[in-house]
């Protein structure tokens, strides 16, 4: 009799367990884009400063970055396929963001760049425009200029371009913003509840980070 009750209880609980495990479905909420996951847990946001959607998503991105589990890193990867400015200006803005990030002001600099383009609608025309923005945001001129020329910043910007090219050629990256977890899982934003997007993203990111843990 006890065995029968146990079997009945298991049968009742099984649909709940399956439902909990299948809230996020491969092919609907996320896409597997690589066989192997990154060596360390990481969430990457592919974005452009010239993308209006990315501008609107920026507060969510910054909030998600602060809520990642210990040991996981949030990386912003700037792309240059939105032809709203020259490749040189876009590269400068990517490097300026990296300089700010290395100085502990990544979020501040990212939002300042976004605001100048989308709120103030003041274009970045040359290197002096980028430099002026950095100085306004309390980064010393000499420190900024040295960092912009540094091997580490130029190398990081080149790595952004390399990742963009590889994902574009494989047709994984065609629009931004795009989130990728552990270099393996591309999040499909459209399938998530847009009214509760940040919470859904946080839950899905946590789920995907655990898949290869």
TrEMBL record:
One Gene Ontology cellular component: periplasmic space
Protein's UniProt keywords contain Repeat: no
Any Pfam family hit: DSBA
UniProt domain Thioredoxin: residue ranges: 11-153
Top-level lineage group: Bacteria
InterPro entries reported for this sequence: DSBA-like_thioredoxin_dom, DsbA/DsbL, Thiol_disulfide_DsbA, Thioredoxin-like_sf, Thioredoxin_domain
Record-linked CDD domains: DsbA_DsbA
Record carries keyword ATP-binding: no
Cellular compartment(s): Periplasm
Signal peptide (residue range): 1-20
Cysteines paired by S-S bonds: 51-54
Protein name: Thiol:disulfide interchange protein
Natural source organism: Arsukibacterium tuosuense
